[in-house]
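Slide 14.
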Amino acid sequence: MLSLATDLEALTRFGRALADPIRCRILLALRERPAHPADLAERLEISRTRLSNHLACLRDCGLVVAVPVGRRVRYELADERLGHALDDLRTAVVAVATDPTCADADDKDCC
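Slide 15: predicted structure.
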């Protein structure tokens, strides 16, 4: 059984990744299929530099991995269960959301 500290650390990493819309888009795209950075940048319509920074964050969080393919690198979710977790979280949040806006958008602790 994992310790509470380990559980909290894992959830914090996942939360940090989901805190940014671009990282959410990357995770959702990789949920569909692995991708090379250039293809992913084009698909998400963001610069390669910006994508690279977000991929580094997701790698540091342990959510994505870089897989060498010849001279290129392909990114994919670190574990297929992350894709299921994203689906479950997305459907659960949509199911309970009555107002997707934060009550106090200036509150840094809010949504």
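Speaker note: The chain has a mean pLDDT of 87.
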